[in-house]
Amino acid sequence: MLYSTTTPEQKRIRFREILASGTIAQFPGAFNPLSARLIQEKGFEGVYISGAVLANDLGLPDIGLTTLTEVATRAGQIARMTDLPAIVDADTGFGEPMNVARTVQELENAGLAGLHIEDQFNPKRCGHLDGKNVVDLDTATKRIRAAADARRDPNFLIMARTDIRAVEGLAAAQDRAKALVDAGADTIFPEAMATLEEFQAIRDAVDVPILANMTEFGKSELFTTDQLAGVGVNMVIYPVTLLRSAMGAAERTLDSIRSDGTQEAQVGGMLTRARLYELVDYEGYNRFDTGVFNFQVPGKH
Q1: Residues 170, 201: contact at Cβ < 8 Å?
Q2: Which residue of the set 14, 48, 151, 234 is catalytic?
Q3: pLDDT band for position 238 (50/70/90)?
Q4: Is 191 annotated in the active site?
Q5: What are phi and psi of 193, to 5 degrees?
Q6: Does the annotation mark 213 as catalytic?
Q7: CA-based, 20 to 30 A from 158: which of 39, 253, 286, 297?
Q8: Does pTM surpass 0.70?
Q9: Which of 152, 86, 143 is nearest to 117 (CA)?
Q10: Which of 62, 108, 119, 163 is labelled catalytic?
């Protein structure tokens, strides 16, 4: 009932244990708090909160228009709804190194288990679009160093994302990954890898856990967890999958209502009332209310 009873500190410890386990962890992207609860119920290891999803949910493109306050508020609402560790996309850190430091502490306060910061220029672009630009090595490493220095919980995970593969090639991505680890990154997120061999090249370059982004309609094939584990990937995210699925279903339902005058044709694919009530623990709230509100209301005199 209400929110998770697992503390943020416990979630962060669990996240570290997952990354050290030698297995590959799946973090589907939650597009709202209720979807985070569904991710937990289906047995996944964690929840991912995509910057693109947060922007798109506001009707905005993923080009750096969201603010730290918006991201921290929504990410916190999602993270508190699940016992799983949740990590969030912090874009370029929302400014210069001091802004990055504040970003880390705000997201710690919001209950996240970790974040990733990328090496693009601000405003950024979606990692699977063309025309990206990356900052120089000094700027990129200062962001990560500021993030690592600012955290108060040593288990809060600092992940460095690099987009340099699309701009300068794979060898540059290997060099950038090494430098970001030296700057304090706990994990590396190499964006828009084209092949399994490219993931293997990043694995060969660094000793920290690495993440694979399996987003639809992007630069990477949709590799299986077995394929990714085979080249040393420790964690895989599906950032926009649930939002795309939900919005696709919503569009089909609206089309049916418009064309047929009723939603009847789409009801079979909907979450039932009973299942929705189960997800929000309607019965738990009812038991609580019954236990507290157990006196008679006096009548009017």
Answers
A1: yes
A2: 48
A3: very high
A4: yes
A5: -70, 135
A6: yes
A7: 39
A8: yes
A9: 143
A10: 62
